[in-house]
Backbone:
């Protein structure tokens, strides 16, 4: 088990290193010179050189990449002397446009993204799995066809269309929900809840549709398995056959994609957050792209990659608990 | 003891109605199995032999229609409600399936799966008791180190051992009838013999009736004392094993027997049951 864990951690480190490298290369090549941005309007070539030297931008690529990498672990200092800026670990970079360390900017917005992600995940898991189960039980009947039709719709409607139409319908036309306002949970839980309700629904519909189909297919397939027949031949009640022999194998694959989907969503829901004006990581990314604030875009990218890799790892570990066949260290 | 045979099948017909029309896969089948007897049902694939066993268990797939009569110890099974049939499955009639790996659930230990039937048929069974029943059943099918292996998962067993686990599963309830559907087909030849010996031994020790379903005449000749030959759902021939092997009445049985290579045969083309197959 320890060897397995060590192997996984090593693999994770390699993947993250490569992601860092690629991201850095892309932004190193594409990025407009930060020195020019900092220098402002009244700028001389000498001043630019001075700033470049201060920030270490005149150093070779590998040197800069190394400084960036070590900044992730031990932090780093931008500039020297009185203008020096401390960027504590994990330092994802420094936004010269907003004069803030990227890590802080992201951390500040992470709770909103997490709230959006957790709520949406709960919603789509509940809706997707239960609709999938109903569909599987009623296979071929009207209910099944109806649900399958709904999932098709759910999967094909783009997020932004859904977000805007929902907002128009529920807030403007019907007036069922108040106009979204940023309210902390401690101040007005109801308003807070109402505020997040629409983003949750919008984000969960596409995923719920996918999960419905997946659950349905898995359950129907599992019910065909020989071991389900064995269970019935043993005289187990249909309920027991279902719960013990069909559900567990059928729902295991759901854990895999759920881990990935959820981790990906934690890194920010770009469109949904933007449409609903939620100040999360996704909105930060969208704003930074508009402003061409490269260090922030890079920071968000790295965060998303990190979350997906960690999510994957968690899923792998969960799997060893759920599926005895991948359990390691148990001798045959 | 009653005057009834253990199993009495009369006019058993199983049919499917699909968009293409109605097909009977088992037609007017009739046979008796005496208490403690061993019946071999022989036929090619598609002969309806597996459907017969599933029909007896009452586990036919949706859309299948079963008519006729199946009596276990004088009790009609075809008119029972699902709940009553559940009480019989696993308890009075147990079944061993062809592919032991896919027939065992990969997510549970073999002990759990062996004890499962026992726990659901007997009320008030503690976990420990069920576990002991599982260990005992595993010992009876000669799985060594049963007390330890009871906590292992199916993938940790070899093919032959898995089939022993399947057989152990049927033993925990001491059934009156064991139906084995191609129990050796998925196994190596050497292991096949061991499993057949085991089935014979269990039959001797427990006095349970055995229905052995197979396409393999060699397998049947070793175990069964009565034989039913089926083809395309029809009963072709039935009789004692000795009679069917030595003096087959139906042409089809003769063809089946001829299709088996014999050690004392001249070397030549093997015969098949139909000329078009060549």
Residues:
């Amino acid at each position: 088990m320890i060897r397995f864990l060590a192997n996984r951690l090593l693999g994770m480190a390699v993947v993250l290193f490569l992601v860092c490298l690629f991201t850095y290369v892309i932004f190193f090549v594409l990025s407009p010179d930060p020195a020019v941005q900092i220098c402002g309007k009244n700028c001389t070539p000498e001043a630019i050189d001075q700033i470049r030297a201060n920030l270490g931008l005149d150093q070779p690529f590998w040197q800069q990449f190394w400084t960036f990498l070590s900044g992730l672990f031990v932090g780093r200092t931008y500039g020297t002397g009185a203008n020096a800026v401390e960027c504590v670990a994990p330092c994802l970079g420094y936004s010269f446009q907003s004069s803030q360390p990227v890590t802080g900017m992201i951390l500040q917005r992470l709770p909103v993204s997490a709230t959006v992600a957790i709520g949406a995940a709960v919603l789509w898991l509940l809706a997707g799995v239960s609709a999938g189960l109903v569909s599987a039980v009623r296979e071929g009947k009207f209910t099944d066809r109806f649900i399958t039709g709904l999932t098709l719709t759910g999967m094909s409607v783009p997020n932004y269309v859904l977000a805007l139409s929902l907002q128009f319908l529920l807030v403007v036309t019907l007036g069922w929900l108040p106009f979204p306002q940023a309210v902390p949970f401690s101040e007005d839980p109801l308003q807070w809840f109402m505020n997040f309700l629409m983003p949750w629904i919008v984000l969960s519909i596409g995923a719920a549709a996918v999960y419905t189909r997946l659950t349905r297919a898995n359950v129907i397939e599992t019910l065909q398995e020989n071991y389900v027949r064995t269970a019935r031949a043993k005289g187990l009640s249909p309920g027991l056959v279902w719960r013990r022999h069909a559900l567990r194998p059928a729902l295991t694959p759901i854990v895999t994609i759920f881990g990935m989907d959820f981790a990906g969503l934690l890194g920010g829901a770009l469109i949904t957050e933007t449409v609903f004006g939620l100040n999360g990581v996704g909105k930060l990314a969208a704003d930074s792209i508009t402003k061409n604030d490269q260090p922030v875009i890079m920071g968000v990218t790295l965060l998303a990659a990190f979350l997906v890799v960690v999510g994957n790892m968690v899923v792998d570990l969960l799997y060893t608990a759920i599926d005895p066949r991948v359990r390691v260290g148990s001798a045959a | 003891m009653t005057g009834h045979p253990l199993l009495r099948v009369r006019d058993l017909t199983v049919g499917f109605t699909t968009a293409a029309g109605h097909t009977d896969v088992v037609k007017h089948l009739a046979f008796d199995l005496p208490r403690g007897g061993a019946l071999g049902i022989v036929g090619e694939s598609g002969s309806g032999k597996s459907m017969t066993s599933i029909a007896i268990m009452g586990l036919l797939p949706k859309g299948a229609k079963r008519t006729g009569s199946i009596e276990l110890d004088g009790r009609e099974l075809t008119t029972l409600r699902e709940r009553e049939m559940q009480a019989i499955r696993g308890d009075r009639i147990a079944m061993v399936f062809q592919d032991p790996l896919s027939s065992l659930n990969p997510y549970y230990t073999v002990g759990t799966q062996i004890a499962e039937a026992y726990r659901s048929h007997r009320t008030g069974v503690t976990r420990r008791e069920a576990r002991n029943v599982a260990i005992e059943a595993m010992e009876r099918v000669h799985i060594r180190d049963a007390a330890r292996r009871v906590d292992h998962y199916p993938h940790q067993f070899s093919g032959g051992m898995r089939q022993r686990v399947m057989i152990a599963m049927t033993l925990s309830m001491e059934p009156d009838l064991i139906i084995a559907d191609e129990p050796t087909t998925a196994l190596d030849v050497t292991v096949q013999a061991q499993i057949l010996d085991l089935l014979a031994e269990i039959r001797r020790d427990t006095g349970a009736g055995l229905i052995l379903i197979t396409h393999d005449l060699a397998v049947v000749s070793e175990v069964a004392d009565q034989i039913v030959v089926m083809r395309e759902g029809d009963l072709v021939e039935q009789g004692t094993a000795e009679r069917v092997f030595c003096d087959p009445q139906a042409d089809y049985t003769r063809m089946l027997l001829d299709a088996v290579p014999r050690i004392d045969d001249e070397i030549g083309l093997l015969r098949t049951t139909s000329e078009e197959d060549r």
Summary: The CA atoms of residues 213 and 280 of chain A lie 30 Å apart.
